[in-house]
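Batch manifest line 162
LIGAND: 4'-phosphopantetheine
JOB: complex structure
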Amino acid sequence: MKAVYPGSFDPPTNGHLDIITRASKLTDTLIVAVLNNPSKNPMFSTNEKLEMLKELTKNMPNVKITSFSGLLVDFCKQNDCKIVIRGLRALTDFEYEFQIALTNKTMDKEIETLFMPTDTQNLWLSSSVVKEIATFGGKYDGMVPKIVKDRLEKKVNNKGVC
Ligand code: PNS
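JOB STATUS: finished
ARTIFACT:
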């Protein structure tokens, strides 16, 4: 089975990595697809996200890292993939995730979305929270992998010199 795990990954967290690791064990090929959407004002460029994700998954041979623009259903079609994986954290994710899943299904009835519950320790973890903590100099050990932490620190420090 081939599946796509799409997201903004701004930046990738331990929660994302947990889903990638678990989903890669259930799939023959897992495509991690970074949404290329500069209008969202991301902290990291698509290239930076791809570099981080490639580094984090270098020991997972069936995981492919790529980016996409436009609609997810079009990306799925182009890659001959009918399964979308999304992680679910607390109940608050549910409505947003349901909307995405049903919208995609309305556009392409062949697409199935599979939800994976996050690991309990990542229940409240999000890229936005990590960025906020990093920006204000707080501690976020255990929330992101080391290479992401290093890059976040560099970003925050570079911004702080103006
Ligand atoms: O990590 P995120 O930001 O929760 O991921 C959201 C994502 C990238 C899966 C979603 O925004 C998406 O698929 N965007 C592509 C545009 C699209 O297909 N829109 C219609 C479904 S909402």
